[in-house]
Amino acid sequence: MENPLLLFPQLNTSxxxxxxxxxxxxPAIKEEPNxxxxxxxxxxRNRLSLLLQKPxxxxxxxxxxxxxxTKAASVSPEEAVKWGESFDKLLxxxxxxxxxxxxxxxxxxxxxIEFWIACEDYKKSKSAHELLPKAKTIFETFIQxxxxxxxxxxxxxxxxxxxxxxxxxxxxxxxxxSSVYCLMAKDSFPRFLRSELYKELVK
Length: 203
Prior knowledge:
mainly alpha; Regulator of G-protein Signalling 4, domain 2; 13 helices; disordered N terminus; RGS
């Protein structure tokens, strides 16, 4: 192939070279996605990484060990004590949500709170065209069989979501979110209040 710059001398500038390079390479770039037409594990991980880029998912990553949590979140003992009043109170405050998420990570069950947060974000969608991509990401990350962060919900609930995921509504994850909420409220929350992490916060 002849050098395009020799055929078009007027393009012999830095900016023009960049534009020409893009035009020449553009067909090759477009062909890349065809190499992996089937949604494999790598694509699932990519979807998950996009989901986890949301601030809600990594706000607490900088908190480190329980000893650093108090300092980083600047939580007063009085504030921490109020979290013990109710699970809703805990979830309604950023520092409380961060602390609870950190606790669930120590129990390797952080997928529950991450799913709950994802559902809260999903229900804030302002237009119909936002629903399908968000719903599919949640489904592939938390619901479908062998999902990277599969949550524990009953077959009936999972089946209902599977059948309706192609035309999702704002409430299509409500039953699953409610189930996960109850699990955390009845099981994880009491353990959190007895944990060393929480005891350090209320000192």
